[in-house]
Structure formats: C-alpha cells, structure tokens
Design goal:
Layout lengths: L1 E4 L4 H9 L5 E4 L19 E4 L6 H6 L1 H16 L12 E2 L16 E2 L1
Parallel strand pairs: 1-2, 1-3
Antiparallel strand pairs: 4-5
Length: 112
C-alpha cells in the first residue's frame, strides 16, 4: 500500500492521482497532521510518498518553530512508520505540476 502525506496540496494531489491504481491511501492534513503520530487503525504502508510540508516561506520566517514541527518533526513521524526509504535514481517520480492540461508530448514518467 502506498501512503501519500500532504494529499491536500499540489504535489500530494498529483502523487495520489498518479498512484491511484496502485492501492494508495492519500491523507490530507485534516486526516493526518504529521506533527502527530499516525492515526490508530491505519494499515502499515509499504511505501510512503511524503509530501506534507510547511511551504509558506514568509509564514515559516514568522513561526520557525511551527515550520520545524511540520518539516522536521513531521518527517520524523513519517520515518517512524518504518517503510523502506526510496531515493532517485532507482525510484524517480516526475509529476507535472502545471495547471495547464498536459499534452501527449508532456513528460510524465514514473519508474519503480
């Protein structure tokens, strides 16, 4: 099972769509705030696609502890799930993030 964090954001939504046919569980912040432990009853994932992050740069400068809680602490909670890490180039994920419709010539490559 693939677990996508941050499924309410642009990258998380794109990942959830890309892996929809592969048994993905896509969690928004409302479903799992990564600052907290994993919700009880959720199946142990085989792969985690961690897209949850504090991306508001100005907000992070105003609240560095809040940003660190999400970007550092949240990543620690995701890592604690114990799913094997993946890294490019063996697991390369390219997801087009344009709001424009993709053309047949647009690159969209998933190698697993």
């Amino acid at each position: 099972m693939y677990l996508v964090t941050g499924a309410g954001g642009q990258l998380g939504r794109a990942l959830a769509e890309e892996f929809a046919d592969d048994g993905v569980v896509a969690l928004t912040r409302a479903e799992w705030d990564v600052e907290l432990p994993l919700p009880v009853g959720l199946e142990q994932p085989d792969v985690v696609l961690h897209a949850a992050a504090w991306t508001n740069v100005d907000g992070a400068e105003d609240d560095p502890q809040g940003a660190a809680a999400v970007n550092v602490g949240g990543t620690g909670n995701v890592a604690a799930l114990g799913a094997p890490p993946t890294a490019a180039p063996t697991s390369l994920i390219r997801v087009p993030l344009s709001r424009q419709p993709a053309s047949p010539q647009s690159p969209s490559l998933i190698r697993r």
